[in-house]
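Let's study today's protein:

:::
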Amino acid sequence: MTDTSTTTAAAAYDDVTSSDSTLRRFLHGLPGVDQVGAEARAASLGTRSIKTSAKEFAIDLAIRMVDLTTLEGADTVGKVTALANKAMRPDPADPSCPQAAAVCVYPDMVATAKQVLSSSGIKVAAVATAFPSGRAAMDIKLADTRDAVEAGADEIDMVIDRGAFLSGRYLQVFEEIQAVKQACGQAHLKVIFETGELQTYDNVRRVSWLAMLAGADFIKTSTGKVQPAATLPVTLVMLEAVRDFRAATGQMVGVKPAGGIRNTKEAIKYLVMVNEVAGSDWLDPDWFRFGASSLLNDLLMQRTKMQTGRYSGPDYFTLD
């Protein structure tokens, strides 16, 4: 974003939500995203090579950033319990292996995850607001959120109404995010955009600013249920948005790419991008997360390879 745009954002921040027309004017006044440029820069950052010591650091950091997730209709108490134990001890044979950042489950499984994780410091995240569609009445979305928080959720991952956003009903989306944020109480709010349905990078930038203005603690690419999910160019646009939002308001907002990030090489590309685009302050689980489960096993395999010089067998780590 240009300096002029950032100044405009700072000046508009206090009254941008005074009306639907004001919000619309602000969001459509944001600079457009150069699609070719964004994709080229993302590809360029993805070619960076890092030294062995930096790779070791990156792998451990990526492990600490993983939100271990199970969001299936067949989830059971046993499965969530096993996942929570894995979050605490990703590699039981190596006590030096860091913990994951969070365990993400449906609201009815929050109490189970919370009981297992106890005082581990690992967060319990719950998807809410009619995940993954976001298609429900507002009172149902708020009840869903409150139930998860009352059960002990530290974080709420909500989904926006993409139909409302794509049809230009920005104030409706804004007010829903505000209401869910209020229902969260002390829990942090991650706002999921489902970027695979938003069609353009301009829309990704607009919805990023909308969510941040409404009070999001994190902005998140995807539910993992729609393809394409997280991509490097989309994440680049979101990282630029949080960087510019901080410049305009002084407030930091986290970013969470979710869905489709399956191996260490891809994860390191994202970390390089975080450092180069948003800055080193975001290289922390408080400000950047990976929504993934299959990623963790590859990180563990690469970590073992760097320590021992050989790969572990495919059945060495549990499958989630």
Notes: Strands lie at 66-69, 102-105, 123-128, 155-159, 188-192, 218-220, 254-256, 290-291. The longest helix spans residues 232-249. The domain at 3-308 is CATH 3.20.20.70 (TIM Barrel).
